[in-house]
Specification:
By secondary structure, the chain is mostly helical. It is about 90% helix and about 0% strand. The chain has helices at about 5-100, 105-110, 115, 125-145. α1 runs antiparallel to α4.
């Protein structure tokens, strides 16, 4: 090989080394940028995950609160229903007694037909009126809620 050719090869070799060094610096810069972007995405994903977990916990807490409130309301309504059923049973019993001559002492005193006497102090008449009023309101209430 001639001296001029050796110098040309040495120059080309130097150019290649410079190009390789530049490529390695560029590759390192690209890898750093990609790593930075990956970390940013991971941080963003972690923040979103935390936000959704917080929302889920809040929704679960609200659901538990609503469930507790509804359970308390159901217990209260069941208690009220029991009391109303007892009232209805008592009124029905009083009405049945009134229909079947439950005013026995009054009948023995000669009161006869209560509607004919017009007696305003007749307790069975008042009971029947209470029963009729109650059942009317109960029917109207159940039709209104349905």
């Amino acid at each position: 090989m001639r001296a001029g050719d050796e110098q040309l090869v040495a120059e080309r070799d130097a150019e290649l080394r410079a190009l390789r060094a530049t490529m390695e610096r560029n590759e390192a810069a690209i890898l750093r940028a990609m790593d930075d972007q990956r970390r940013a995405w991971e941080a963003e994903a972690a923040a979103e995950r935390a936000s959704w977990e917080r929302r889920a916990r809040d929704a679960e807490r609200r659901t538990d609160d609503v469930r507790t409130t509804l359970e308390e309301r159901v217990r209260e309504l069941e208690r009220q229903n029991g009391a109303l059923q007892e009232s209805v049973a008592a009124l029905q019993q009083a009405a049945a007694a009134a229909r079947h001559g439950g005013g026995g002492a009054r009948g023995r005193r000669g009161g006869g037909d209560l509607s004919a006497t017009g007696s305003s102090d007749d307790s069975t008449g008042r009971d029947q009126h209470k029963y009729d009023t109650f059942t009317h309101r109960l029917t109207a209430s159940s039709q209104h809620t349905n």
